[in-house]
Amino acid sequence: MSEIVFFLTTLQSEDVREAYEQWVREIDQPTAEALPGVERYRVVRLAGPVMDGVATPSYSYVEIIEVSDLATYQKSIAETPASFFDQFRSYISAFDAVAGTVVE
Fold first, then answer.
1. What is the pTM of this model?
2. Of 28, 33, 58, 89, which residue is 20 to 30 A from 81 by alpha carbon distance?
3. By its UniProt entry, which InterPro entries does this protein fall under (predicted)?
4. 97/26 Cα distance (integer angstroms)
């Protein structure tokens, strides 16, 4: 059964979008992909609703991290240097991180 971690993030402001996306490409993605247990990593910029009656999401991005084992990923995240998360938080006003499994 596949496990997926989602980081749901909100930018501090639109002014940091370009810098954040550069940081994602140059720092976040290589760091995430190098973590033990990570099989696939993607970041999706949210654009807006696709159906009438659906509100615009409060989040700016969704990180989708497919992992082979959630416990291994959690251990890897816990060992990531604090400076990485300081950089992350310099762009983000709020975030949620949740895990789920694919329904097959």
1. 0.88
2. 58
3. HapK
4. 21
Residue 94's DSSP bridge partners are: 10
Tokens at residue 63, please?
A: 């990180």
Q: Name the token pair of 14.
A: 């639109």
What CATH number does the domain containing 59 carry? 3.30.70.100
Which amino acid, one-letter code, is at 95? F
Distance in angstroms (rounded) separating the CA atoms of residues 99 and 77: 13
Tokens of 31: 């760091």
Q: How many CA atoms lie within 13 A of 47 on its CB side?
A: 2
Per-residue pLDDT of the chain (104 residues; tens, 9 = 90+): 579 999 999 999 999 999 999 999 999 999 999 999 999 999 999 988 889 998 888 899 999 999 999 999 999 999 999 999 999 999 999 999 999 998 88
